[in-house]
């Protein structure tokens, strides 16, 4: 026993301290290594000319339908030529959205905006009931990743899901989907998130319809904030401008 080195010690209160610091340090090293090794599956898109107007294709559901005039006005004022297409209740996998994305992919363009997240959350919840939550989340991330990769030469904006709505829109699943979206963002250098989940919380509740999801009919608001539809458009505009910084030399 003589000469053996013990790896524990006892403090003044009789508590045994193990090699806790070394263990924590090892965990930290592993965590840093995992972050560093996160694969970037889609690289940043190629740069455009500094003087070239960036064309924006917007595809989405009823929120795009409602806010379309506000989005168009903001993008036009910002110098972004654009096209806007929408269909109520459309999700990312729907024939309408996939058809419009196929048209956008076949034509010259620079930025694609996709706004279907709350409908995607409803579909994800339905899938989770049959194949399990983990597989449903993986299916969404895989499909979203494939879509971002298809537009690897462009910047892709995805509007995330509003999280504080009536139960019909499954707020818990919306929050899960937003987490999946943030994770996928780390793997796609051409992906930008338009954070409607955060921005919508700043909009007075009376600016939404009873479902707390669709925009109310009155574009004016109190407290000096934007009306819900224009706040939504401003969120998209901000993400498009972020894409502009990514695409400019």
Structural notes for this entry:
With 249 residues, this protein is an alpha/beta fold. The chain has one domain: SGNH hydrolase (Rossmann fold). Helix content is 47%, strand content 11%. Strands 4-3-5-6-7 form a five-stranded parallel sheet, with helices on both faces. Strands 1-2 form a two-stranded antiparallel ribbon. Strand 6, helix 6 and strand 7 form a beta-alpha-beta unit. Helix 2 packs across helix 8 and helix 5 crosses helix 6. The chain is globular. 37% of the residues are buried. The N terminus is likely disordered.
Supply the key terms:
disordered N terminus, 7 strands, Rossmann fold, alpha/beta, two-stranded antiparallel ribbon, 249 residues, single chain, globular
């Amino acid at each position: 026993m003589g000469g053996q080195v013990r790896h524990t010690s006892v403090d003044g209160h009789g508590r045994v301290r193990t090699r806790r610091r070394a263990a924590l340090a090892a965990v930290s090293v592993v965590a840093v290594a995992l972050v560093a090794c996160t694969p970037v599956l889609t690289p940043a898109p190629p740069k455009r000319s500094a003087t070239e107007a960036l064309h924006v294709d917007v595809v989405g559901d009823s929120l795009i339908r409602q806010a379309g005039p506000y989005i168009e006005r903001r993008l036009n004022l910002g110098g972004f030529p654009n096209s806007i297409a929408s269909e109520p209740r459309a999700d990312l996998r729907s024939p309408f959205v996939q058809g419009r994305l196929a048209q956008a992919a076949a034509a010259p363009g620079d930025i694609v905006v996709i706004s279907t997240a709350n409908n995607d959350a409803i579909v994800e919840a339905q899938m989770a009931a049959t194949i399990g939550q983990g597989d449903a989340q993986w299916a969404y991330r895989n499909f979203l990743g494939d879509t971002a990769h298809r537009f690897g030469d462009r910047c892709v904006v995805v509007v995330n899901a509003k999280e504080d709505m009536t139960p019909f829109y499954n707020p818990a699943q919306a929050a899960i989907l937003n987490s999946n979206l943030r994770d996928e963002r780390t793997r796609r250098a051409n992906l930008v998130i338009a954070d409607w989940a955060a921005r919508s919380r700043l909009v007075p509740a009376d600016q939404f319809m009873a479902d707390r999801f669709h925009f109310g009919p009155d574009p004016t608001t109190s407290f000096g904030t934007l009306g819900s539809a224009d706040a939504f458009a401003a969120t998209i505009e901000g993400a498009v401008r972020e894409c502009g910084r990514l695409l400019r030399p």
